[in-house]
Amino acid sequence: MRSLKRAAALTFAMVILLALLPAGVWAADASKPTVVKVKTQAVGLVFDGQELKLPENQHSFIYQGRVYLPIRYISYALQQTVGWDGKKLQVTVDEPNEKELAELQKQLMDNSSGKAKPFKSVTLPVRTIKATLLFNGKAKALPEGQAMFIYDGAIYVPVRFLAEAIGTEMNWDPVSRTVNGESAAYRAQFNEEKDPGKPNGTSGGTTGNEGAAGENAGAGSQPGAGGGGGGGNGGGVVPVKPTYEQITANAQSSLESLRDGCKTKLIGMAEKYLAATDATVKAQIKAEISAEVDNCTSQFESLLSGISSNLSSNGYSTDIIEEYRKAFEAEMAAGKALAGKMS
Asked: By 3-state DSSP, what share of the chain in percent is helix, strand and coil, each rounded to 5?
């Protein structure tokens, strides 16, 4: 009996881990609008090095581990124009002309100035919406399992999807709860300003493995960083470049550790949920489980970001990142099917 109960808890926990509770959007007919209650959360916004704040009456929230922001605002932050055709249910995101770009930059200045108001979380009844997304004339669909929402006339989309569709590099810091986006133009300009006309063979002045998000820290210091120590040939410690196999092995270990840790926590929570008889207690445990799902998914995204940076900084392909993500999405699809059978 004990083993059966734990098996039931494991099944329940895995469904929750994938954020696919029957009460969610994906248990319903996807062709029909569904109302989902979300709780707004304070999210830091930094785009091209500029800290921004959301306009009045616009919100940020996390749903199924993804950060959602208003598509019009975030497109403006990425310096793109946005159009909406209510009859066709169509959103267009395009490169601005010179006049439009000047106006967007002015709006960004307005949104980056002034003191931010104290944040107060509220619960919003957002509604799913089926709309076509066109980026510079080309349609791009949300990945399976993701949704668009509408609230108070504003359409909300996963910020990572939107940024990557435009070509912006996006990172999420789960500690500071900050979205950091850098356009290709900004990255190119920043690198040029950082090392203008740097001649070959210059020693010192660099930090090594920048952007590795803490992965492989201490894998070696740049030579000539302080002059001392060392024998012949100018001294300095020669950095040891990690192999591709070392990086991916460490990545696999970290991902498995995260999965096991999350599963253990969620099984314990699921057992408490199954044992509870009071509706209020069950609702409280369910909310705690939902928060843990968000936390686990945020850690997963943070790990992928660090792994990708580590591979890139050492000159390796990042194709395996897509494999990790596909495996994660496959588990989500399996959980979705299981949730459908249980609902």
From this structure: 45, 20, 40
